[in-house]
Amino acid sequence: MPIPGFKVLTKDGLKGPYQKSSVIKAITSAQIPLTARLLDLETGRYLSAAELVGEQAETKRPPKPLQQYDPDVTMPMREDKPAKPAPLSDDSNELKLE
Known about the structure:
The protein has helices at 20-28, 49-53, and strands at 6-10, 13-18, 37-40, 45-48. The protein has 98 residues and is an alpha+beta fold. It has a domain at 6-53. A four-stranded antiparallel beta sheet has the order 2-1-3-4.
């Protein structure tokens, strides 16, 4: 008879076994992410933590594909702007309101 419960797949391998209630409590308290993989020891099937608690895990959307590079299309060259002249120094020590 298979052992009831779950093992949690981590970076270091499978951890457990844990009772279903313990796994659900860890998921709902954010100790196990919804994307975590769980091994159901009764069926031998992997499922996500989200599946176990009846939620839907957020999935990252794939990035939009880049537009195909067309070597015939060129970008306009940036026009060089003339350098700004340095401000003139005023040695008169007078206050000027502008």
